[in-house]
Amino acid sequence: MTGRRRRQSGGNSLLEFTLVGIPLIFVLISTFQMASAMWLYHTLAFAAKEGTRYAIVHGANCSQNGNAYCIMVPDVATAINRSATGLNPGQMTVTLTPSQGSAITDTLANLMNSSTYATTVWPPSSPTGTNAVGQPVTISVQYPFNSGISMFWPGTKPVDAVGRIGLPASSTDVIQF
């Protein structure tokens, strides 16, 4: 009689694993993916804030009275890169937006290394008053987050079939100096 019960309960284990194990594995993987996305977003937000902090203390008065503290676009990009630990600068898109005039958008790697931006002062002094004390500056960053689980998350729209989502972060502050 005991041998017969043992044979009958063999299918129960498989059914129990199917009903409990597979959803549990899915929840575990989802938890790790969410933790990774949260770390990525926090790193992006920190990098944007640090870049903004660096830019707001180099405004209108940077070149007055013999001061030589004006910064160029690569300087701001380097400040962002120092705070973006573990992220690929070639994949991060950065937008530098002054209070007036046009914004600069490119990858972080290009902003740091391109000769195009090497002589571009930021925040810009043109139009007049753009880099004056009290004027806002905004730095926005975006980085791709790759997740196979994202196609199952409600409300998300992956950019492509791989499950790539662009995580954005931005920071705005006013020029202090």
Characterization of the model:
41% of the residues lie in helices and 18% in strands. It has 177 residues and is an alpha+beta fold. It has one domain (2-174). The chain has a four-stranded antiparallel β-sheet with strand order 2-1-3-4. Helix 1 (2-56) packs antiparallel against helix 2. The longest helix has 55 residues, at 2-56. The radius of gyration is 25 Å and the shape is elongated. The model has no long low-confidence stretch (mean pLDDT 85).
Number of separate strands: 4
Helix-residue proportion: 40-55%
Spatial ordering of strands, largest sheet: 2-1-3-4
Element-level helix/strand string: HHEEHEE
Overall mean pLDDT stands at: 85
C-alpha-based Rg, rounded: 25 Å
Kindly give the count of domains.
1
In short:
The chain is an alpha+beta fold and 177 residues long. It contains three helices and four strands. The protein has one domain.
Any key phrases for this structure?
41% helix; four-stranded antiparallel beta sheet; 177 residues; alpha+beta
Any chance you could write out the topology, listing elements then pairs?
Elements: H1 2-56, H2 73-83, E1 93-97, E2 104-107, H3 108-113, E3 136-146, E4 164-174
Antiparallel strand pairs: 1-2, 1-3, 3-4
